[in-house]
User: Fold these one by one.
Assistant:
Number 1:
Amino acid sequence: MSEPADMPEDEAQAARIRELAAALKQQKLLATAIEHMPMVVNVVHRSGELVHRNRAARELNELLGDSTDWRVLRHRVTLAHLDGRPVASEELPVMRAFSGETPPPLEMKVHFRDDLPPRYYLSVGAPLPEDDGTINAAVSCWQDVTALHEAAELKDRFLAMASHELRSPLASMQANVQMLEMDPSVLSNPERRLEVIGRLRRHTSLLLTLVEQLFERARFGGDLPLCPVETDLVALCRDAIALAPTAGPRPVVRLDAPAPVLGKWDPIRLVQVVTNLIQNALRYSDAATPVTVRVEKSGTDGIIEVIDQGIGIDSTEVEHLFTPYFRSSNVPLQGRAGLGLGLHISSEIVKRHRGTIEVESQLGIGSVFRVVLPLRRADS
């Protein structure tokens, strides 16, 4: 800002002070904004010294050893392109910025330490030229885009799983329809007619279950109203056991409930939860081993446990069981229909009752799913 030539000296001095104050205020606002940005921002000197770091950068640098030398921190991580090729130092946007470029963003897979899972970052860099055009510093920004990659992987996993699970019953139904077209006399034979109708009914039911799970998953993105009424968990679990599939060799489902457990819950939703847990237990258990549904009261909570002696779950996968579309790696695809939504839906229903659901499992020994429900919701 320049003052008029005829402006008195004291007014010109005041104008310069106001201009400086405005510039300092602007600088402070910018520094505050950068400090609280969710992305990592470093100002790096050509020597490797970190001239400035925002909060996200300090947190990341602390994880890497909290050095003030960017070159030291750089060698404490492993950087790879998305196709797996190592990222050379000269490819990094901040290094290209020192040569005067404003390079395009570079997306990388970053390994920090052996005990931490890899993460994905989008890196950008820009030169910070001095008045004479010399570039002795550059700004380097890193945005964590791991969640976007996980969402893309989840989508791909879901599409592969859905196509596999939906194709099987559809193919069977189509085969039965083609058989009827080729040999209509099947309908006049009572035994064969019942056999074909039974197959069609089973596969139709499976398709409806899969589609209903997808619909339920979509509903959980919004509000899911509950209709709590006075309910006996023991009677509710007895109803859920009655809904368990009976076709083919199945484990026996036993109810262990010494006394009624009364509370205020949505019985329709909780039957859905218990039915999901029982079906899971039956699906992954041998016919010779029983499944137990245990119901009891503990203080101000009602507790439901579904106990099986099935294939079990690896300890590294237990924490992912209630995420949508997840299926354990030891589950054979053939004969184990499902989209990996049942446990996720059950978990959401329990959460809406202000309850908790957890699992204890050992490979080859079995699993215990435990649902804890307050007898009275805090808002009821």
Note: The chain has nine helices and 13 strands.
Number 2:
Amino acid sequence: MRPTAPPSAERLRRIIASFRGRRLLVLADLVADEFLYGRVQRVSREAPVLILQYDGTDVRLGGGANAVHNIHTLGGTPVPVGVLGRDEHGRRLRGLLRDTGISVARVASDPAYVTPVKTRILAGGIHATKQQMVRIDKATRLGERSAARRAVRTALRSLRGRFDGVLVSDYGFGLLTADLVQAAVAFARRVGVPVTVDSRFALLGFRGMTAVTPNEPEVEAALGITIGNDRRRLEWAGRTLLRRLGAKACLVTRGSDGMALFEPGRATMHVPIYGSDQVADVTGAGDTVIAAFTLALASGASPVEASLLANYAGGIVVMKRGTATVSAAELSGAVASDRGRA
């Protein structure tokens, strides 16, 4: 298989500069990431649990909404298509998107749908960094006969203007059925732009995308294997996904082991993690990775170039607390500092 020569720092910086104004359709499950902060007071007399003094709550754009947010902070123009409930968190997410300068014209509402919420409770001492103690997920699923589902289909059919790429973010909340995702893939093919898919639980249910960006546990679950430190199993898994999905690239994120990029006819590229191994928070890192990866492909980058930029973006964001984003300036600075040492 053919190896790929690494791109120069100047080439990567030119790609980042071309992010600005790239218009991306984002078909996504929109999630509220809620953080509850407190200080440990004492152990309860009622049960062997800690009592926390509540300090405050922070709600951020999560799931597919976090991918949307990262595209925006990197300089692109995301066009989110999805569903929110008419509950408090749905209104909050809609307001956060608007306040960020992102259009919500194609985000449907469903009064019967409960907006997905992932609540993380963090606590620590007065002068200590707060650590995550527990996460509470609000289980929800969009109804099969939801009018909002039909509204999303209508939004896809009515898209106008120039698009440079399509990103699909499936968190398993019932919106992104196989036929809806295939409609997004067909749209991308029709307008001649790359389409990427990130699916938590249905990786093998879609076909024909340009690239997928699963993490290693998702690959293991999809193929029924354990990879661990076995490079041969990783190689088999990556090649199997390429073949079964009909994709042009598969970028497997592997936590502290970095990333592995698979392309047909090319040698696998293993990318070590960027930055310190003292990770602050991995919340939403996968959303940042696929946002940077897709935006790079939409800007004319090769899968290798897009993978390197996605790796830098992921390395930056895990050093931030909570659900976070990366800017084009931060990404360009990481390229300059890291490639300058190469």
Note: The CA atoms of residues 139 and 243 lie 33 Å apart.
